[in-house]
Amino acid sequence: MDKEKFKRIILENEDVLMEKALNYGKERNYTKYTSTLKEAWRMSIAGLSKALVKVIEKNDAIPEMGPDDDFTKSEVAEFGIIEAQKHRSRGVTLGMFLSFMKYYQQAYEDLIYESNFSVEEKRYCSLYIKRYFDQLELGFALEWSGLSEKQKLEELQKSNRVITNEKNKYLTVFESIYDPIILVDKNNNIENINYKAVEVFFDFAVSGMKYYGNINTEKEFDWLNRELDKFMGLNEKEVIIEKTMETKKGQKTFMIKFRKMLDVSEKYRGTVILFNDITERKEMDQILKKQQEKLEYYAFTDPMTGVSNRRTGLMILEQELLFKHRIDAPLSICFLDIDGLKKINDTYGHEEGDILINLIIENLKESVREIDTISRIGGDEFLIIFPGCFESDAEKVIQRINYKLEDYDKKNEKPYQHGFSYGILELCVDNKLSINAVINAADKKMYQNKMQKMINPK
């Protein structure tokens, strides 16, 4: 038999051996006396495999037994003796321990049986494993039986003190955790809640209230059963939800994590529920969101009129020009200059000038479509972009605005007139002008309109 091949299949299949031993433990109900953590099972397999490999390295022949052998001092039994002492101190009986070791042995034999070894190799390896476990059992059976009843009692008492200290340490850590925690069993009944959870959800908080049976949790957590039912229905290991609720400390928002207990033996099938208070973070997020929205507003908007600023207007015009070339749709722009603003500022003050601008712009907003864009290009200069519009269509819109302003001025509410000069430019399909050239062309038409109004005032 190739020793390296034998060693390799043992060392490379730690997870397989662990899973097989765990399954046997579950099937035969040994797991109610074993560790719930995967690492403990891995260490058991690693220890058994390490000792087995050590024997394989030293002995080509199958490790047989003789009448004069001291199995308590055999290196084969060393690991098994240590494990036996651990389990004995936990109250496990010799029969229980030996019987479960048979299933550990079965896991190793299953591995060999399922391998691609030849029939002769399988027979050799299986017998080797059998003799290895025989010597393990003899070693810790002799060690176990060598203790007096007094020694066994003292060992149990010592172990009980250790377990009590571990329990107290668990309770202290559990009660000291800053976030509220709830533990529920496999039937979704609350088994324990920590001090922070009691403080947040109950009127009177004392450490260890649930553990020592001094609190009824059913009423306060009606909603929890519904969430737990959803969680169990998803068949997920972990789910996180956000929930806002009333607590004894006011309305709070929690990030609630539902996590199935890490128990490979399935002895404790339940859920850990962790409440992370994100109330302040949510409030800060809202503040930051509003600030961000405000920054974005000022980055793209003229703060006085509420229309797009120059930078945004030029960006939109550039996009519309590119879009026009792709789909060959009409596009018109209007360059608009408010009449007499400087005179009004000088005569009545800049505040009155701002009122004039805003009144005209409000009439513009009411008259254009949602897809049209109004941008403030300068102090009294504005650009209107009319996607999908011919010059005649844009002209009608501008005339409607002029009629509205004329009707307003007839009321004589202000000692000045509300008017503007404008130039409309329709861009043809083969237009090659740059953005600046387009605006300059519309500006030139606006200037002609202004001159015409000066020559022929109404």
Number of structural units classed as domains: 3
Share of helical residues:
55-70%
Report the C-alpha radius of gyration, rounded.
43 Å
The spatial strand order of the largest sheet comes to 2-1-5-4-3
**Can you count the helices?**
15
- Structural class by sheet pairing and helices: alpha+beta
CATH topology of the largest domain: Alpha-Beta Plaits
**What about the largest sheet?**
5 strands, antiparallel
CATH class of the largest domain: Alpha Beta
- Poorly predicted runs are none
Query: Roughly what is the average pLDDT, rounded to an integer?
Result: 85
List the helices and strands and how they pair.
Blueprint: H1 3-11, H2 14-27, H3 38-58, H4 78-89, H5 94-113, H6 119-145, H7 149-176, E1 181-184, E2 190-193, H8 195-201, H9 222-234, E3 238-247, E4 250-260, E5 271-277, H10 279-300, H11 310-327, E6 331-338, H12 341-348, H13 350-367, E7 373-376, E8 381-387, H14 391-409, E9 420-427, H15 435-455
Antiparallel strand pairs: 1-2, 1-5, 3-4, 4-5, 6-8, 6-9, 7-8
Helix pairs in contact: 1-3, 2-3, 2-5, 3-4, 4-6, 5-6, 12-13, 13-14
